[in-house]
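Blinded run. Sample ID left blank on purpose so nobody reads anything into the name before looking at the predicted structure. Input follows.
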Amino acid sequence: MKTKQQVLKSYLINAIALVLLYLVLLYAIQTGTITRYLRGIVMTIFINIILATSLNLTTGFLGQIAIGHAGFMSIGAYTAALFVKYIESTGVVLLANGDPTPQGQLFFLISLVLGGLLAAVFGLLVGIPALRLKGDYLAIITLGFGEIIRSLIENLSFTGGAQGLTKIPRLSTLEVVYIITILCVMVMYTFVRSRHGRAITAIREDDIASEAAGVHNTYYRVMAFTVAAFFAGIAGGIYAQYLAVLGASNFNFNKSIDILVMVVLGGMGSLTGSIVAAVVLTALPEALRFIPNFSDYRMLIYSIVLIIVMIFKPSGLLGRYEFSLTRLLDKAAALVKGRKAQGTEEGGAGK
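Blinded prediction complete.
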């Protein structure tokens, strides 16, 4: 059990690391080190981090396979996009010289909340009947839900139909999205460490024992599913206002599988594992693109790497282990102290 001083030390170290990373990001943007191409990769990494960590709430911590996460992402994306397009049509200046105005940044944040809330409502509507059942029913229902949403997007006029939704204001900026990503991960981490998160984990371990212990299984299953849908909606809102063009094909079955692969590779039950997997699986295909003689086979190599990892590390890169910067620094300090003590003993013995 950590003491209060240890907890405060951990928070302080993590806060310093996040601030330093933010300053590095700002410096890279201001000096032009991050090109437009790199900006797209980094933005995609941030979006995938939110998607992977949110799906981990359902798949990792709750233990229920869901393969329709892109459906909730699409709801958040179209809700946020339609909202900012409406605000822009009223004459409010959202962009000036290609950059968001203060009003634009405010409406950007409001659109993300609206997208997340509507996605959560759909998550609640899907989760209430689906999560009363056991087994793989949730996977089948979420798969069907994702396909229904995609079909509706293609056939509704206000979503742009098959032609897609265009001229969405580009309000997503790396600096703001970095902060939003950190806040989302912090909220999810706090949630899984709360009594609600412990109840959800208990259901994953043994739903019969958890019910006997007084845990309302259906309530907490729906809670986890709804929270995951909320953050998927936020990721969708960021995605829409960065890409500026939306189509139903952006949220197909393959997108849901991509998110699920990140969760499985990182470790089901590890938020830091999902973060690592999101970074690796987003950056790896792009890195292979620039290796001579490998660009034509980059997706094949990408698939082989995934298979090798799953064969030799079936629990994922981190399993259910959470990476701790504080623990790493403590181990490094103990190692340095041990080597100094060993050197002192050897020096004394030599004399």
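Unblinding after everyone has recorded impressions. The chain has a mean pLDDT of 86.
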